[in-house]
Amino acid sequence: MHLFDTLQEGAAFGAEELHLSDALMERWTSLYPDDPPDGRMPAGMIAVATMRAYSSLVVPRPPGNIHGSQRYEMLRRPAVGERLTTRIACAGKELKRDRRWVHFDTETVGEDGTPCFRGRMTILWAA
Amino acid sequence: MADGTTTIDRLTPVTKRIDRAAIRLYAELTDDFNPIHVDPDFAATTPMKGIIAHGLLSVNLLWQSVRRSLGEAAVSDATLDIRFLRPVREDDVVTAGGQRRPDGDGYDVWIDNQHGETVIAGRMLHGAGRATS
User: What InterPro entries is this protein classified in (chain A) (predicted)?
Assistant: First the structure.
């Protein structure tokens, strides 16, 4: 279990691949029908890539963590069909007013290795 | 549709009801099955006193608002920096919008619930502006 006391700044958790398949895009547009099919990943799907990396790589986690803040930097919108790779690392942690905050940095690159987007998520850690 | 160089004062609002089906589908899309989002019994024991939606579920409405208002180019070259201020509960109706900052450096953006409470707030920069963030 990744507890606040044991999480280490700079720790890398590895990489997670996401295929922007037609099936995935269909599921996304079933939730957000207004996202246009222009052959590119809708911007909101940054969250799919980064949260899948967080969910599958930063494990096990204590139940009840809460997302506190998020920064995303879009560099390019990948093409539908592309395979993305997202890396995630612990960028730091801090205790403020008895609340445990953990920061994670993510970077997602496309098949050719060029960056697509970067993120910084801050999580209120439950334990 | 506007192109990426367009500047307007107010972003077009985008609204969505966040029901349990939407929360479940978002959990599947993101592989985020945190019980606070999907387990009513667990969620009832937390300070939230019930299921809350993933914060990022609503954030797509911000991206949509920017796209509708400023065009695709503004989305493809944007930095979004937000804080989750209040929980979004199932069946809340949330509306995303934004206002051009007085200093002209991007937009203040927000998502409000049906009670007029701001649940998410932050800033969006695009183009060269984000270099100064």
Answer: HotDog_dom_sf (IPR029069)
Return per-residue pLDDT of chain A as tens, 127 residues. 999 999 999 999 999 999 999 999 999 999 999 998 899 999 999 999 999 999 999 999 998 888 999 999 999 999 999 999 999 999 999 999 999 999 999 999 999 999 999 999 999 999 9
What is the value of ipTM here, to two decimals? Answer: 0.93
Q: Could you state, in order of their start, the residue ranges of all structural domains in chain A?
A: 12-124
Residue B13 · residue B69 · CB < 8 Å: no
Distances (CA, A) of B81 to A12, A69, A78, B10, B84: 23, 8, 21, 18, 10
What would the two tokens of residue A75 be? 């560099």
Cα–Cα distance, B7 to A74 (Å, whole number): 19
Report the residue of chain B nearest A23, measured CA to CA: B29
Does the model's pTM come out above 0.80?
A: yes
Number of domains, chain B: 1
Class of the CATH domain delimited by A12-124? alpha beta
Say yes or no for a CB contact (<8 Å) between B30 and A38: no
> Which residue from A minimizes the CA distance to B83?
A69
A28 to chain B: which residues are within 8 Å by CB? 29
| B8, part of any domain | no
CATH of the domain at B28: 3.10.129.10
Give the minimum alpha-carbon distance from B53 to chain A in angstroms, rounded to a whole number.
11
Across the interface, which of B28, B42, B83 has its CB nearest the CB of A68? B83
